[in-house]
């Protein structure tokens, strides 16, 4: 699939990327190359192949899903510039 300069300009606009007019032809060529590569990947026969997340078979180590309070309130509040009654104290910003 070939991308023309107008399509490259629109893609750059949608991606919020400023591309100079002189560079639009190069961008169109790169985008066309990417799409051609994706078309080649679509031609690969993957029937009977399971999807994988890694090339080495590993189980993801997971921690126990338990609710805790951390038990380190004093250590956390020690970093605060101002703490009162066990909470962070911040200046009042609303009158």
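^ Assign residues to that structure.
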């Amino acid at each position: 699939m070939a991308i023309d300069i107008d399509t490259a300009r629109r893609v750059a606009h949608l991606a919020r990327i400023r591309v100079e007019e002189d560079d639009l032809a190069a961008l169109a060529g790169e985008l066309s190359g990417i799409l051609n590569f994706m078309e080649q990947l679509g031609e690969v026969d993957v029937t009977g192949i399971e999807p994988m997340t890694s090339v080495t078979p590993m189980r993801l180590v997971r921690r126990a899903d338990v609710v805790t309070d951390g038990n380190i309130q004093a250590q956390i509040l020690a970093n605060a510039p101002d703490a009162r009654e066990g909470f962070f104290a911040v200046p009042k910003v609303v009158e």
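The chain has three helices and two strands.
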